[in-house]
Design brief:
Keywords: NADP, Oxidoreductase, Pantothenate biosynthesis. Helix content is 46%, strand content 19%. By secondary structure, the chain is an alpha/beta fold. Strands 5-2-1-6-7-8-11-12 form an 8-stranded mixed β-sheet, with helices on both faces. A 4-stranded mixed β-sheet has the order 4-3-10-9. Strand 6, helix 3 and strand 7 form a beta-alpha-beta unit.
Length: 306
Amino acid sequence: MKIAVVGCGAMGSVYAGRLASAGHDVLVVDRWADHMAAIAANGLLVAGPDGELRVPVRAYTEPPSERVDLVVLAVKAADVASATAQARPLLGPGTVVLTIQNGLGSADVAAAELGADRLAVGVASGFGASVRRAGEVHHNAMRAMRFGGYATLGPSEVERVARAWRLGGFDAEAVSDIAAMQWEKLICNVAYSAPCALTGLTVGEVMDDEHLGPVSRAAAEEAWQVARARGVGISVTDPIEFVRDFGARMPAAKPSALLDHEAGRVSEIAFINGAVPREAAKAGRDAPVNATLTALVRAREASWTA
């Protein structure tokens, strides 16, 4: 496939590098000029548990007027609106747009701007990616990628996308209920995103802390209860066991919200912990644990943008 990755931070770079290594024609678009220059000059280096690969990838700070088969929106949730504007020159009549963000809500933005019928939604689990320097990224693991149609995108088109990712070595599958997958990831994310961002602790440290552990588990259980109240078909029966198993697999990991805070950036917390009270309200419920955690993170971030 001819693929454009819009947003070439840590995760976008991992996606682009692995897809290019499979022989796909990949271009990346990001406004980080040094990163794009390094990729253009030396290729994109992706390091992980299975070693290193360096692949040639076309890199741009502004998108070329070039139609592609697949656009991957790999930006932060808060940047999806601006990324859709960048993506427009890349769209042809048959272009599929795949949006992959943490939390809930960003797919609605992409659908409104680029069309619901061409949109697929992705869920990425267990990567732990970070940028080492311009042109080089690292990931700790690579558990799974799951894709589903947002509206009327047919199963065959979603499967075509999944097949392209499998060629890049991803554990990628097309699923019929992407909402359940999003919520199952969200349950894990809310357990660790805000607590880690607020304290600077890793996933394992939060999980085992006598004070923060109960808060983390309460956030997860609250999200699980809201998902059930909203009628989402999640397979999780014990949210506490679920998030402890998740944390035990990557105890040294820093969630993206903590990495954002370490870099002085505003996080995606409004789409992660903040999604739970929004969804709870639709079911006539409250979500005080996640609402409080969201407020604490956003109050901290407000001081950086004041």
